[in-house]
């Protein structure tokens, strides 16, 4: 991608419309799950007195969760204006007095000089959609204060990443009717594989809200349309951040499936790093 394309929302899948829809479904159960997930990934009981940056703020759910955990100040950024609107609406509904602001900006336009440094920088399932993942990860890393924490979730590399890159590129510009048909095909394939494995897909869908407080239908649309698309292995992720002066604190890495791992999509591996203090 050219630098101009990297900075333009038009070259990226319109996640924001999906987040506007999902934001209306946020309730205390989803907020509680988001708080639990932040606690698990960060390893902290609270964010009292800490500043929190959410890169790719989406619906604003995790910015709100940071507030619930005691964050002193929250900043959320997203390249999609609809995501910024969704996030502002979420905070207005559930935490109107919070010190939180949301801006429409590309990660590639961010710098410590313009935004300052943060105690905690968080980006869940976002930086692999920017068009230049490693550059985006570097920008995010530089926004962490020395001694601060970086939490990222990134698509695991699988044998089917190339196939999904082609599908996502098509889906992101397809008509709504074509997108609906594609989702039905994927759901049919998922149902078939679930039956072969002896699993109940309907039960999985019913309980989906327990996974990061998400909604199954919104998540499928996100996955199908998530373009640009890149992925990374745990080994490469650890090595990359190690070279930037970060220490791995914890990770939640998925075990690859026994049969055709990645055929239905790649989930995110989660990492929490600490930036080493100078000297």
Q: How would you describe what is shown here?
A:
This protein is α/β, with parallel strands linked by helices and 279 residues long. It folds into two domains: 203 residues, Vaccinia Virus protein VP39 (Rossmann fold, 3-Layer(aba) Sandwich); 65 residues, no CATH class. A seven-stranded mixed sheet has the order 3-2-1-4-5-7-6, with helices on both faces. Helix 5 links the parallel strand 2 and strand 3. Helix 3 packs across helix 4. The longest helix has 21 residues. The radius of gyration is 18 Å and the shape is globular. The N and C termini lie far apart (37 Å).
Quick description:
The protein is of the alpha/beta class and about 280 residues long. It has helices spanning about 5, 15-25, 30-40, 60-70, 80-95, 110-115, 135-140, 160-170, 175-195, 200-205, 215-225, 235-245; strands spanning about 50-55, 75-80, 100-105, 120-125, 145-155, 245-250, 270-275.
Q: Which tags fit this structure?
A:
single chain; 279 residues; alpha/beta; Rossmann fold; 2 domains; seven-stranded mixed β-sheet; 12 helices; 44% helix
């Amino acid at each position: 991608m050219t630098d101009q394309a990297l900075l333009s929302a038009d070259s990226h899948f319109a996640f924001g419309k999906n987040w506007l829809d999902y934001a209306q479904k946020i309730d205390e159960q989803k907020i509680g799950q988001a708080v639990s997930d932040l606690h698990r990934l960060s390893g902290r009981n609270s964010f009292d007195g800490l500043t929190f940056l959410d890169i790719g703020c989406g619906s604003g759910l995790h910015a709100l969760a940071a507030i619930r955990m005691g964050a002193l100040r929250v900043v959320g950024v997203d390249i999609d204006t609809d995501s910024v609107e969704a996030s502002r609406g979420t905070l207005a509904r559930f935490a109107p007095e919070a010190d939180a602001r949301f801006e429409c900006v590309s990660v590639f336009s961010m710098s410590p000089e313009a935004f300052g440094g943060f105690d905690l920088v968080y980006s869940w399932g976002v930086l692999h959609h920017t068009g230049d993942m490693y550059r985006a990860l570097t920008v995010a890393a530089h926004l962490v204060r020395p001694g601060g924490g970086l939490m990222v979730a990134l698509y695991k590399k699988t044998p089917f990443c190339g196939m999904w890159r082609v599908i996502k590129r098509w889906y992101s510009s397809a008509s709504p009717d074509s997108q609906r048909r594609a989702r039905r095909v994927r759901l049919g394939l998922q149902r078939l594989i679930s039956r072969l494995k002896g699993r109940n897909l309907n039960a999985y869908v019913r309980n989906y809200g327990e996974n990061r407080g998400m909604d199954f239908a919104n998540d499928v649309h996100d996955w199908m349309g998530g373009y640009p698309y890149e992925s990374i292995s745990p080994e490469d992720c650890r090595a990359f951040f190690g070279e930037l002066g970060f220490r791995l604190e914890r990770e939640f890495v998925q075990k690859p499936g026994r049969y055709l791992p990645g055929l239905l999509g790649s989930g995110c591996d989660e990492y929490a790093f600490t930036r080493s203090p100078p000297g």
